[in-house]
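The instructor's notes for this session suggest beginning with a concrete chain rather than abstract definitions. Hand out the sequence below and ask the class to guess, before any prediction is shown, which regions might be ordered.
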Amino acid sequence: IRTGDIDEVGDDVHLTFFEMLGNWSLGDYWKEDAIKWSFEFLTKELNIPQDRLAVSCFAGDDDAPKDTESAKIWEDLGFKKERIVFLPKEDNWWGPAGKTGPCGPDTEMFYWKLNNTSAPKTFDAKDKNWVEIWNDVFMQYVKDENGNYLEAKQKNVDTGMGLERTLAVLNGKENVYETDLFLPIIKEIERLSGASYCGVGDSNTQRLFRIIADHVKSSVFLACEGVLPSNLAQGYVLRRLIRRVVRYGKLLKMPNDFIASLVKSTTEIYKVVYPKLKEKESEIIFIVRQEEEKFEKTLGKGLKILSQEMRVQDYNSEKEIKNIPDLSPINGFPGFKPVKLSGKWLFDIYQTFGFPLELSIEEIEKMRGKIHDREKERIKNEFEKELEKHQNLSRTASAGMFKGGLADASEETIKLHTAAHLMLVGLRKVLGDNVIQKGSNINSERLRFDFSHSEKMTKEQLDDVENFINDIIEEDLPVSFEEMSLEKAKELGAMGVFESKYGEKVKVYTIGSGDNVASREICGGPHIGRTGILGHFKIQKEESSSAGVRRIKAILE
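After discussion, reveal the predicted structure:
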């Protein structure tokens, strides 16, 4: 199960769950035998025509030379130079798994998937009609602690070959979803939704079918192995998969509690090869149902926020209607009302409640009437810009800890980050202005917050802080930020931590607006859009951290 390219799932070849065929050589055969046997299996055992195959090899860089050895072996097997390309490390290199260890170039085999056209004479690796089917990894080097790539004393070979892609090739299919590893799930989605997988001209519906089928399959295998939905590690992967299934199921108008039926379709496919799935079917269904129900409640909250905001915007639009051009005749939509929606705000709804953009727009149109195509395009562009920012943030997170002590960019971590701001205000209200933040560590499970204070807090004090924060949550105050000079931030009374690290320009996050500002703090973000999203704040523990410093651990329920 691999979610690194989860956003690609739904095309013809990408999956989060797949079965990897493979074999190893540990110090035994090397490049020539590995390549010859790969070629023999593809063309002699599987009877794939050589004229539909192409290969790539490592182009070389400062760390290791061009892999002309592999290319020469392919030429000797009858491949013309036009069907052999050299690609950089990001395409044709594996490892090391950590900072150091075995690594090396690989050679990849591609298959021309289009049945109605001959393969081009020249191999273009960017053409998605060429599908990778096999990968021989040559662990030729060892990377040391100084970053040097040294020739390995023992050279190993690893083979990677996806069963689903191989099966699609053998069945003459142009995508992995039209094999018997997916069709039973696809047919069940059709039955439940009333939609057609092969609907003419509706590629988005087809993509939704594929995502749901893939994610259900991944969820079944994870749950069978004892993984439970949570906000950490493997549990977070399972939670994310199930919630994506629910979101996309809503776009297909699937009935409530539809995943259980898809679980049964999945266990039926694999009952002979993986009998444990069938044996644990009831347990798996219980796990996914629980998570489905939890997420339904979360979506309900999101829908309420969406509805409230629409009423506010309707009111504002009525006040400003005279200054907005009349768009009602456009595209034949009588009674068209101006929609003053922000793609950024809809991204906040998506990030907090899991509402995909399409679902938000659908709900808004139910409440407000048809949104004009020009407005939809603007909203979509703004949304995608915010999504790209968030994805870049997530990639940063995987490389190391966030500034401000955030462990990742998950929804729960961002919520707890906002709660940390409220806690600082609450502590200063209850204990006095001598309280200063001394550090924090925030992950998707809990908030850990260090602050200056010399005595153990009483239960009454802790209750007062907790109640103060929950009152602000109940008020559902907006959270916004503005970039400004450090001097202006100080003039506004913004709280700051570790001041020497600030540059000339800073971000100031404000919780509240107008005369009702609960918090104003210098911070790099990210934060949620409104405090009402947080739920219920609960302090679990208060203890000493070091001399004159106390520590609170808290969660959101």
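Then share the key points. The radius of gyration is 28 Å. Confidence is low (pLDDT under 50) at residues 318-339, 394-403.
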